[in-house]
Design a protein that fits this description.
4 copies of one chain form a homotetramer. Chain A is of the alpha/beta class. Helix content of chain A is 42%, strand content 25%. The first copy, chain A, is built from 13 helices and 15 strands. In chain A, strands 12-11-7-10-9-8-15 form a 7-stranded mixed β-sheet. A 6-stranded parallel β-sheet of chain A has the order 3-2-1-4-5-6, sandwiched between helices. In chain A, helix 8 crosses helix 12. Chains in contact: A-B, A-C, A-D, B-C, B-D, C-D.
Chain lengths: 334, 334, 334, 334
């Protein structure tokens, strides 16, 4: 079976997905849509597919599934429309910045029995996936604590930050999903601290650039997340998980693995620039996983509910910072 | 100048200090005291010094300085007595489990102008000291975040835990001191999470075995501490500090640095067993630093006030767990 | 410009090149030839190209270049034929097992002014290429010594070994090329030691499985190569180069970079299985480099002469083992 | 039992041994002798021992054992004298630069049944000893190849080199001993290459500064040694051993184990300066091993015969360079 794809959104992340679809023997990119015609045309030219409008894709009989890479505020509407049209949906995170909107959207997904997978790509990184596999094998025994480090090489433009929903919903949300993925248990309590240390303009925009979050499950398992919008040495992405029998960790990745020794010491090159190069394999693997689901192999995961849960943690973290207290997730999920 | 030492307490940590004094060309161990005569005699035999009572040491004209390694509940009284007798004092942490008692004790130290140094040995670990030196040189720019990992190979007996003051005062206290040391700024806010995951008996004793703490200074610098009473792979002691220009870290230490490659992969041996072997060099260096202070080189550091500050953070962490909120340090310091 | 390729040989390495050609935006796979029709058909089906005979490819006006992946004993004849037909040639190493035959073949290449590039893929590994780039930048100063480790996970079948030309021509030849690449100077002296330690059958077949070679240039630069047909922990491929100002090295690569810590120590997974996975990026990069040459960017490198030089070192190594002495390369090159 | 030591030679290495003796609970330094009275007095003052002449030590009833750290050309005479006087002898390597002289000296040792241990300190390095222990445990199966890297931070003065016996006898000799130690089998063939790359004056003095040696045993096990008198990044001391089931290695050691991450990459500090700091623990352990032998625990090892064997390999390497051929050790041992 070959899955025939429509791509909604031909921006940076759209191009990543176009390449992943093209490279997969079980997929074919049929059409691309974008508000910017040149962006869509460029992808169409490169991979030999059509340019169509979103509406046309919605009605295309030769398209089985869509990948939604449009701006966040269009995600929920598009999910609902494509769910109703019977197409399978892969949507970039987040579904929406509003918990209420996500809930109503997922209600439509449930009613239409649509297949929906959410783009928490890091679960598919081969190294992080191998960490999870060791946990699943029981190598470290019962999980006790996860430590997640995620530091961006540099902050996005303040204009982006202003409409991003803030660092917890925009950046930490990946780590919230990772914490749930690694602990394997629902998180019940959240406590966060936040500062503006990188750029005062970020504070002016009402956001933070340096945050830490502690999470706890009902049985007392814990996770801690450390985020910054600044890392001069590259894209800092590490996880470690401790259990009753030991620990398992995934270190940072670098494009070139050499070492220079001199009177100044031993130097290895910086890490990957950013997510495009760091998570190349993860992007290909998540599309492959989506295709496998469409081929009948298991349920879509991460699901819409996983998207909702991560967003709820972001909400709780914001509330924790605002009120200076530990917030129960039930408070924000209602 | 040779500093002539009296050693109070001939237990495990007393023997560590006896060895450090003996190995220092500028020090001489003159006498040892212990409630258990055999313990004192063993040290006396090994290093060729006298066994005396604490009272005799207090009145010994041939002793310049004492190292206090007796049980915690005797520390404050001994500090006051030796401060009044004009002897220099090196005291194992903590000064006392009660903030009020520490304060009154430090009042006597101030009045008598006694030299008091507190045994936060980790500041003197060559690797951690090198991290601090890089920060001081400006290598990483303005400090933003410290991440401190401290996991013990195994929990102490529950009987010990019951009178230890709890994990924050007994174990995390070292990390609180390290956070202050690395951030170089006073901590103003504390938030902690705590679980019993290792041994339910620890919970029965009213303590926790798995805790995480977030700290913040007035300017927004942050630290996070991760503690567990369990680490099957050895004594897990790591620090990393992030700043505006980069990061500096110290990895774990292991006694034997070999690697075996086989069909099962690449394996390095476990870490040091525990603090006695991990911090051998640190114990020698802290005694050398104390001797240097007595020789006129700078002020005693870590000071009694450093001991008080770390204890206040432990107090605040306990309060944070109990009340489910971020606690200002000013609340507990009064 | 798009380079139109014919692929000669549809075996294991042929499939690697087919994939690299397909993945290159500047290349198109037009036809494949193989003595085994099913092998050719499989590639044709996967990449949508024709199956043609070698003769048909030789006469195809729609083919600009060929990649020769047929058995070694056909290489020289095919190079000559395609050189005369005016097509560009990428040939897997070695050109031939006989120095004389390689020389006569290269004579035809020179006369026809054909473009010929030889498949020493390791030069294109991003990590090894980065080592070379550091040397070229002058980071380590004048090069003094190269250390090359190359150990296969397991020996090929003895039937393969019997017609391979022996370990020096089959396996070490890559390291001979790497030594020339890293030292940047022609090698003049060779001394080798060889044993049968892995499998006595290899000895019965007249070959060795464990060899070491020392090389020297006219100015005294040195290299040492260490080879074995056995490495339980994966495909061991390391280089280090020392110069007047320091050293630069490339460590082994592994597909999954995690670490498990337990009472048994710290364990990382084994290395890549073998060259197909270890050198994936290198195979793509060497085809890209060949295409760049056809687009007018520089000379083909590694050239036919590089292929000859590496084979001469293999010849000299064999002679060194046989005669128990250091052999001057001039002796075998004549 | 306490072993009472006389120390012959109060130079750099003499001070290292004095400290090791002082730090050993089972040893006492009774007297020191040196042609330079101030050197001897300095050690005597520091450790509270006598200054005596070598003759006086020879006749001292209160001395059980001597450590010989005098210039190389006195070693054999002193060994013979002290062997005849019935004292146990620890002698720094080499016994002599002449194979014949070493043989005649060892004849006296055998006749007098004297205890003689030779100072190949590296066998006692905890990391190298752990490598050997893994081999002995069978972790890597039957040993096949050892790779020994030994690079000095800088060349000694040419005046020293001129009377050192040359790099093979002065520097590589440690690696020859290590190769025998690791292979666990007598070496039968030697092939060496040598260049002058660091300092032309070394060549003028008739020596080399950059050498490589291949070794082989009767059963075909191999070792390769790589030496240079130059390493800008510190004292480069590594071993790796490959066997039928896997490999075991010991990496370089550094005094401070931190890492700085910045836009320039990840940098660790240089290695130890030189052997005094790199092998501190090894020097203490070898004296402890000597004391254990005197206490009845096993035979002295490395023995005088080990010293002879390593020197013979140096001799063979020199001959191999001179004659451009593989040399059988039997040729030089006669």
């Amino acid at each position: 079976m070959t899955v025939r794809f429509g791509l909604l959104g031909a921006g940076r992340i759209g191009r990543v997905h176009a390449k992943a679809i093209h490279g997969d023997a079980d997929a074919r990119l049929v059409a691309v849509a974008d508000a910017m015609p040149e962006a869509a045309s460029a992808i169409a030219a490169q991979y030999g597919c059509d340019v169509r409008s979103i509406d046309a894709i919605l009605q295309s009989a030769d398209i089985d599934a869509v990948v939604i890479c449009t701006p966040t505020d269009t995600h929920a509407d598009l999910i609902e429309a494509f769910a109703r049209s019977g197409k399978a949906i892969f949507c970039e995170k987040p579904i929406d910045l509003s918990l209420a909107r996500v809930k109503s959207c997922l209600q439509v997904v449930r009613e239409t029995k649509a297949v929906l997978m959410v783009g928490f790509n890091r679960r598919f990184d081969p190294h992080f996936a191998a960490v999870k596999a060791e946990i699943a094998k029981g190598t470290i025994g019962a999980v006790e604590m996860a430590v997640i480090t995620s530091r961006d090489p540099g902050a996005p433009p303040v204009s982006y930050i202003a409409r991003s929903g803030g660092i917890f919903r925009d950046m930490t949300i990946h780590d919230f999903d990772m914490a749930r993925f690694l602990l394997g248990e629902e998180i019940t309590e959240v406590s966060a601290m936040a500062s503006v240390l990188v750029d005062p303009e970020i504070g002016v925009a009402g956001d933070f650039d340096s945050v830490q979050v502690m999470l706890k499950t009902a049985t007392g398992k814990q996770a801690v997340i450390s985020n910054s919008r600044r890392a001069t040495y590259g894209y800092d992405q590490r996880i470690e998980v401790h259990g009753a029998l030991g620990a398992v960790s995934a270190e940072n990745q670098r494009p070139v693995m050499i070492e220079v020794a001199s009177a100044a010491g031993y130097t290895r090159p910086p890490l990957h620039d950013f997510f495009m190069t760091r998570y190349t394999e993860a992007y290909a693997a998540e599309i492959a996983a989506f295709i496998a689901v469409l081929g009948g192999k298991g349920e879509a995961s991460p699901s819409g509910e996983d998207g909702l849960a991560a967003l709820a943690l972001a909400e709780a973290a914001l509330k924790s910072v605002a009120e200076g207290r530990t917030v129960r997730v039930a408070e924000v999920l209602g």
